[in-house]
Amino acid sequence: MLLMRKKYKQLTSEQRYAYFQLIKTITFVRLNFIFQQFEKMGFSEQTHAL
C-alpha cells in the first residue's frame, strides 16, 4: 500500500486522471454486477422502488 502511494505521487496529472478513471470504471462494473445478482434473486421490485 505504501509503495502504491509513493508511485502515485510520482505520476503526472494526466496519469493520475487515467488511474482515477480506471478505479471509477472498476467500481461501477462491480456495483452493476452486484445489482444484477440482486435482480436475479428477485429484488428487482425493491431496487426500482428506490
TrEMBL record:
What this protein is called in its record is Uncharacterized protein
